[in-house]
């Protein structure tokens, strides 16, 4: 579907305003077109005959027509604004819903910066174009055609002047727009890059300051900013030809009319009032053509944004529910990986997991160890279907997770991700993010299990303490404990902790582990840990190496049979 047709559907709820706007603009245009004829009447009949009554009468009529035209123009602006703002709000909402529906793989490819640009600047560009369409697209062509017709009626002997100039101007506009259109797309791409740099810098501002890398970040921003500026200047340079060319055409047209018209006045074939009216109509015609050219430029820029918006709207999630996917689940929590292989870009990239097989029984705590890049996070991300496997299958209670609806599956999985993400709002709201209906007693119980209750009560407002963006007013360990409480509150059949106690001291971590053993009795826990001391009592430990399970078993079994595990153990806890 063409971008214009796709986006036009968002105007359907506002079709009344879209239809009414042109009629109101037609009223303004009609009143404007009457003015030169009134002026002609004043000059050729009122002034020439010294008839002041006619001059006053016609002048008052011109004022009345101007007021009516002003009403039409103002009403058109109000009506068009209602349609455009409603269109923009609906489009942004649709884009946001689409982003929410996309899987991790889509978001990895799109990037945060480009997504922000599409929901903001691109939508604004399209909104501006539609606003212009509902106003200038109606006004300019009507004025252009109406003025040309009135000019021909007023002075048919001079009709060749506007016709010749219009042909030349239209050819120039087509040439300029054809050259500028691909440049607009490049402007939006460079805006993506700029937004990406800015988003990264704001998200990582503490790291930047900690490593005294502000100058480097200024340099990165300057490069992206200069690239955007350079491309924008290149487009502007191209479009800058339009204005002077139009003015030259107008001036040339006025000179031609005065020259050829003066000859006809001298010959008695035309009157001075006709020449004045014809010049007015000529200027209106060419000015309207200028507005049309500006409109075409804006539409060309909006077309680049529209293509990017539609591309996002038509993006299909890489992870989708199968037809007839199970929606009613009551899993016990038996997780099994059966010869699983996975690569982030499908078969086009190197697998990060190869032929992985293991079973986590209900009630078991399964720990996952390995060096950085071994595939630990990738492995647990396959359970809630953040990504789908390329080969093999992941099952819960013997059912392939791909046969379950994503929403139903994830309702039974509690997860604290490696990067702790908290939202602006109260601590209570953050803990019950996955279960908004949870009562205060449940929230407190989850917080106690995560060893968060005491520090929460240390704040003056307790659970009603408002967190800053991303929880900036909490320490790393405090944020991790709130994230664990959030995962526990959903009462999951499967709990995934992705290195979520790395910022917690050993004593607190031990208390969390004790609480998990009580709360997760009969349920399954998968814990990624960097500290081997936190998983010594796990029912099963998986050792990942290069995307494969190098060894699995209990602590005692691995210590006796796995050199990799023994090396990790000795490096952290020593030979004793």
Describe what this molecule looks like in 3D.
- Helix content is 62%, strand content 10%.
- The protein is of the alpha/beta class.
- It has two domains: 3-313, ABC transporter transmembrane region fold (Up-down Bundle), CATH 1.20.1560; 331-412 and 527-576, P-loop containing nucleotide triphosphate hydrolases (Rossmann fold), CATH 3.40.50.
- A six-stranded mixed sheet has the order 6-9-10-3-11-12.
- A hairpin with a 2-residue loop joins β11 and β12.
- α2 (15-47) runs antiparallel to α10 and α5 (112-154) runs antiparallel to α6 (160-203).
- The longest helix has 50 residues, at 52-101.
- The radius of gyration is 35 Å and the shape is elongated.
Q: Quick summary of this structure?
A:
This protein has 576 residues and is an alpha/beta fold.
């Amino acid at each position: 579907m063409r971008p214009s047709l796709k986006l036009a559907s968002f105007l359907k709820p506002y079709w009344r305003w879209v239809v009414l706007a042109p009629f109101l603009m037609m009223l303004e245009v009609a009143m404007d077109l009457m003015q030169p004829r009134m002026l002609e009447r004043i000059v050729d009949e009122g002034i020439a005959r010294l008839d002041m009554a006619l001059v006053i009468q016609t002048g008052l009529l011109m004022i009345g027509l101007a007021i009516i035209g002003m009403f039409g123009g103002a009403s058109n602006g109000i009506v068009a604004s209602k349609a455009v703002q409603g269109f923009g709000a609906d489009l942004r909402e649709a884009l946001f819903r689409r982003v929410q529906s996309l899987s991790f793989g889509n978001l990895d490819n799109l990037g945060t910066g480009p997504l922000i640009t599409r929901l903001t600047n691109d939508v604004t560009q399209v909104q501006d174009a539609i606003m212009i369409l509902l106003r200038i697209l109606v006004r300019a062509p009507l004025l252009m055609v109406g003025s040309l017709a009135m000019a021909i009626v007023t002075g048919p002997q001079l009709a060749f002047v506007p016709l010749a100039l219009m042909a030349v101007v239209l050819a120039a506009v087509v040439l300029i727009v054809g050259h500028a259109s691909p440049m607009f797309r490049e402007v939006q791409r460079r805006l993506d890059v700029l937004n990406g740099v800015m988003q990264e810098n704001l998200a990582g501002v503490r790291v930047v300051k900690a490593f005294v890398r502000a100058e480097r970040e200024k340099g990165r921003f300057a490069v992206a900013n200069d690239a955007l500026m350079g491309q924008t200047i290149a487009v502007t340079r191209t479009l800058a030809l339009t204005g002077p060319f139009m003015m030259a055409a107008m001036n040339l047209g006025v000179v031609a009319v005065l020259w050829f018209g003066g000859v006809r006045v001298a010959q008695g074939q035309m009157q001075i009032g006709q020449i004045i009216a014809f010049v007015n109509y000529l200027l209106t015609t060419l000015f309207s053509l200028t507005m049309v050219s500006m409109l075409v430029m804006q539409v060309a820029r909006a077309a680049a944004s529209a293509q990017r918006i539609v591309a996002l709207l038509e993006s299909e999630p890489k992870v989708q529910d199968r037809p007839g996917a199970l929606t009613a689940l009551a899993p016990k929590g038996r997780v099994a990986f059966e010869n699983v292989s996975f690569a982030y870009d499908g078969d086009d990239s190197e697998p990060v997991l190869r032929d992985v097989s293991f079973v986590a029984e209900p009630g078991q705590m399964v720990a996952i160890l390995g060096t950085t890049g071994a595939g630990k996070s990738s492995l647990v991300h396959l359970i809630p279907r953040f990504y789908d496997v390329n080969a093999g299958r992941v099952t819960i209670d013997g059912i392939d997770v791909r046969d379950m609806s994503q929403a139903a599956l994830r309702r039974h999985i509690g997860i604290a991700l490696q990067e702790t993400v908290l939202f602006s709002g109260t601590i209570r709201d953050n803990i019950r993010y996955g279960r908004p209906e949870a009562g205060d007693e449940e929230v407190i119980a989850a917080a106690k299990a995560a060893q968060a209750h005491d520090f929460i009560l240390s704040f003056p407002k307790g659970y009603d303490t408002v967190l800053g963006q991303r929880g900036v007013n909490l320490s790393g360990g405090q944020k991790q404990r709130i994230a664990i409480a959030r995962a526990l509150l959903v009462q999951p059949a499967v709990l995934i902790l992705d290195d979520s106690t790395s910022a917690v001291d050993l004593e607190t971590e031990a208390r969390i582990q004790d609480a998990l053993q009580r709360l997760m009795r009969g349920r399954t826990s998968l814990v990624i840990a960097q500290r081997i001391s936190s998983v010594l009592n796990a029912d099963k430990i998986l050792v990942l190496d290069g995307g494969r399970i190098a060894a699995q078993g209990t602590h005692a079994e691995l210590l006796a049979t796995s050199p990799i595990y023994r090396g990790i153990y000795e490096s952290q806890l020593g030979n004793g």
